[in-house]
Amino acid sequence: MKFTRHSRVTLTALMLIAVTLVSCRGQLSDKPPVHPQQNMYFQERFNAQQENPFFDDNRSMRPPVAGTVARGALRENIELYEGIDEDGDFVDEFPVDVTRDLLYRGQDRYDIFCTMCHGGTGDGQGIIMTGQYGYVPAPSFHDARVRELPLGEIYSAIYNGVRTMPSYRSQIPVEDRWAIVAYVRALQQSQNIDEETIREFDVDIAALQEAHIQEQERLAALEEERAVADEPGEVSADLGRQLFTQNGCQACHSIDGSPMIGPTMAGLYGSEVELDDGSTVTADEEYLYESITDPGASVTAGYANVMPAFAHLSDDEINSLIEYIKSLEDE
Ligand code: HEC
Ligand code: HEC
């Protein structure tokens, strides 16, 4: 095709227009864009978090109606989700299959979520027990009482928390909670086994014994370190007050007369204490000493036997605690 002069001018003009139009896209404009086709672009609505005077609380975002269950979140199987049966009693059977994989998963999760307080073997000697955190010590999983807890109650400790232990419901999903429960049971069995039963398994007993001796040595060294850290000879109510906080006593005992998880310390010294076997004792120094180092020996009536033993405290520390308790008068 041969271009005439006229068609060349037209072509150039067209190209210029095209270039001008295309270049428009790169330009900024404060004006709203032109919408030849409006559709539902502009409509009356409330944005998220916007105020809405229609409702009493002026919120435009409405909470779901009470009892609403999100799709896929109906948890009818309470044995699985809450560890209880329809009477509200703790279950004592696993609602999941206990497999080797589940146990290893449980070990992995336990080491992440529980060791810092309960210790690697479940002896309650996690890092919080160094005493500098003022946290309630975790009980040993190998105490007779804890060994007898039904599975559902261990599950519940994770799901609901227990007394001063917080719930780990939002950190640990359902299947993992049961994996941890299974692992806790495995730990309990591992620490309470006789030599004859061990021999039935293919394990290196000499190596286990060696590891045990090393662990005992480590604990003994820790004990010694603590003993050096306690300035010997110093016993005072003031020190006792600090120890009371450092050891998390205040999480279970008030000093103002109100009962908490444990009885109040106000006015305790010299008072008559009723025990759960029906007998009474006078709360003298000897009784206080025993209550702190071996709380299971005499349990106060009306309270559960859940106080951890503070046997790792030095005599000076315990005597300071006693001096402090003696200084707390009845309100
Ligand atoms: C922050 C420290 C901490 C962590 C982490 C922790 N616990 Fe505890 N746990 C405690 C304390 C403290 C108690 C004792 C609470 C009390 O008696 O007031 C306790 C008590 C328990 C009990 C005993 C309940 C009873 O009736 O005596 C079980 C079982 C338990 N925890 C399981 C677990 C498991 C499983 C995990 C890991 C998912 C875990 N805990 C993580 C601190 C912790
Ligand atoms: C996990 C909660 C808990 C913690 C932590 C705790 N106690 Fe207790 N304590 C109890 C409970 C429950 C009782 C009552 C049952 C019993 O006698 O074992 C009790 C009983 C006592 C008693 C006897 C009181 C009475 O009326 O007979 C003394 C004394 C005592 N605790 C001191 C302490 C001291 C000191 C600390 C800190 C070093 C401490 N407790 C930490 C729960 C706790």
Low-confidence stretches: none
Strand content range: under 5%
Sketch the major β-sheet. 2 strands, antiparallel
Bound molecules: heme C
Tell me what the CATH architecture of the domain at 78-193 is. Answer: Orthogonal Bundle
Rg, nearest Å = 34 Å
Name of the CATH class of the domain at 78-193: Mainly Alpha
* Mean pLDDT metric: 89
How are the strands ordered across the major sheet?
A: 1-2
How do the SSEs run, as a string of H and E? HHHHHHHHHHEEHH
- Globally, the shape reads elongated
Q: Helical element count?
A: 12
Q: Report the CATH topology name of the domain at 78-193.
A: Cytochrome Bc1 Complex, Chain D, domain 2
- Structural class estimated from helices and strands: mainly alpha
How many runs of DSSP E, i.e. beta strands? 2
List keywords for this structure.
single chain, 331 residues, mainly alpha, Cytochrome Bc1 Complex, Chain D, domain 2, two-stranded antiparallel ribbon, 2 strands, 2% strand
Task: Please describe what this structure looks like.
The chain is an all-alpha fold. Among the domains are: 78-193, Cytochrome Bc1 Complex, Chain D, domain 2 (Orthogonal Bundle), CATH 1.10.760.10; 237-326, Cytochrome Bc1 Complex, Chain D, domain 2 (Orthogonal Bundle). It is 41% helix and 2% strand. The chain contains 12 helices and 2 strands. It has helices at residues 5-24, 78-82, 100-113, 115-118, 144-147, 151-159, 174-191, 195-199, 205-229, 237-246, 285-293, 315-326, and strands spanning 272-274, 280-282. The chain has a two-stranded antiparallel sheet. A hairpin with a 5-residue loop joins β1 and β2. The longest helix is centred in the middle third of the chain and has 25 residues, at 205-229. The chain is elongated. 19% of the residues are buried. One heme C is lined by residues 136, 163-164, 247-249, 251-253, 261-263, 268, 273, 288, 291-292, 295, 299-300, 303-307, 310, 321.
